[in-house]
Design a protein that fits this description.
alpha/beta, 4-stranded mixed beta sheet, 23% helix, methylmalonyl-CoA epimerase activity
């Protein structure tokens, strides 16, 4: 493969497990300001797609834990338990103003994991848990 050639690969969707879509929507839509792009129910499960108006081609799918149709009931239970413990990974968002975003998210009652701080790798960031317990980080590039 020629590394000088653009492979044409871009992120389209990522997935975050949530146990309550209404609470997740109140957080991702109402607190973070993401827009709802799709809300689909199928076989007793629900998938809600959200995204930033600044990134129309990138979507976050809020899905039930263990949504894989091949997952056993034991696998679904294990995923639900890991989600409840906050052991599943979330995403990292970028923001032009980490401190202002921190104030807004903290005021919503979200669990604070880290107040804004300058990191040695060139970002200022903070961290919260979403209503399902997922780790979410918010970074602002340093001016330097």
């Amino acid at each position: 493969m020629n590394m000088d050639t653009d492979p044409g690969v871009m992120l389209s969707q990522c997935f975050i497990a949530v146990d309550d879509h209404d609470k997740a929507l109140a957080f991702y839509r109402d607190v973070l300001g993401l827009e709802v792009r799709n809300d689909v129910g199928f076989e007793g499960m629900r998938w809600v797609t959200v995204g930033s108006p600044l990134q129309p081609d990138v979507e976050i799918v809020l899905e039930p834990p263990g949504a894989n149709p091949d997952a056993s009931e034991a696998d679904r239970q294990a995923m639900a338990e890991l989600l409840a413990k906050g052991m599943l990974r979330g995403v990292i968002f970028s923001t032009p103003d980490c401190d202002a975003l921190f104030a807004r998210v903290e005021a919503s009652g979200a669990e604070v994991l880290q107040e804004p701080m300058d990191q040695p790798y060139g970002v200022r960031d903070c961290a919260f848990r979403d209503p399902a317990g997922n780790l979410l980080r918010f970074k602002q590039r340093s001016a330097a």
